[in-house]
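Moderator note: this is an archived Q&A kept for reference. The question asked for a predicted structure of one protein chain; the sequence and the answer are reproduced below.
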Amino acid sequence: MTPKELRNSIFLWAFTGKSTQKFVKNSIDLSIDKAKKNSYLEKNKDKKNMFLNSEREESFDIPETWRWIKLGYLISYISTGKNFKYESEPNDFYCLGQKNNQEYGIEPDGMKYISKNEWDSLDNDSFLQKNDVLLNTLGTGTMGRSGIWKEEFKKATHDSCLMVIRTLPELDPEYLFFFLRFQRKNLESLATGSTNQKSINKKDLLNFYIPVTAIDEQKAVVQNIKKLLNLSEQYEASWNKLEKLNDAFPAKLERSLLKFAIEGKLVPQISNEGTGEEALRKLKESNLDKNYSVSKDEEQEEPFSIPESWIWCKLENVVAKKIKRGKSPKYVEHSNTLVFAQKCNTKRGVIDLSLSKCLDESIIKKYPDEEFMRDGDIVLNSTGGGTLGRVGKYSSLDNQRGLPVVPDSHVTIIRPAKLMDPQFVYFVLKYYQPYLESLGEGSTNQTELAPKVVANLLFPLPPFYEQKRIVAKIEELLPLCRKLIKQN
């Protein structure tokens, strides 16, 4: 049961009389007759536009001693405010609006100000009084939200989007407040007008039926609701905590899978596949122009344990070209060369070249062949908070137009060597992503991830064929993790 469902169950339990079953049930007909004589509807009985002849629809049963009564017969005042012209400078003439009537209660801070002339022109009823029931009447998302005005708030009036309802002694204002809160969906259904300008009008509220019992029983209902709502708030806090855990679980499961993989725990080691040291030596032999070290620098601490047959090296040891960013481009409206920007490496985990711009091809000679992006290149967002450290993998399938693509100066390109499985390199870096995000340097809005820092990243290197088996196992299990994410 969700917190909202629990609250509605509490309200239904209370307004069907089940919370006060032991109460002495006296007839309330006399008090209702008394209320009607002093009610807003009775005083306006000659105004036919105040009345609706539609039959009452009972959405639930109430005790025999309770009655369904139109709200207009139990209130002395109902009105929206005026369309005020607000003052830009603060003063002492406050006006409450819909934004101040929040789900958690009235938020008096942030009230607007009206002029002294408009303030002085208002009659006494236009000023909010203790226990006035408030109802947002306009706009999707806020319409139907109820509140109650407390004595400790500042003296204020209200605007034209906020309905104020003042009850007679026979109707407890908090009882009405909780019932309107319970009936929010039904209140919203009363709204008329265009989609963005729907509003609840006064006539519908006056003819809105509420279940009524004696005033002392109403007060008991209110106290019972308050007690259980306090417990429901504790339930909601626990529920929200559980929901966060549920939301985080699939992502954590995916990260755990990658962690298992790059620690050498996902597949068994097979001796005849060789060692990581042999794999690194072959990488060195195939890239004689590169300066390889067969082991990590001594001062670097191993981030986790790896199998004996693996070896630690640097990321720069397993790539086909120097790890660096692209150039600062010059853009044009249209061309046949695209520029890959950070936003193309999207937060949702896919490459989107529709977000790329076009390169001015008058400077294309500045780009050697190796700087054009290739299938399997790993892209790393390298500047700016919120995007820095994000890892993606470029595929020719992302480039439906088949145009040449170059990275801009905010994107670092990592091109795995031919003797490496590019998907394995990608999975290692994807696991490292939270760590990469923490390596940015500079001011808040100018943080950068230097290519040298990326190149010196410690890399766990298994034999080539073990990389293949690890990738196959991840690709078998990863869809299950992502299926959980979709379900959540």
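Archived answer notes: The chain has twelve helices and 22 strands.
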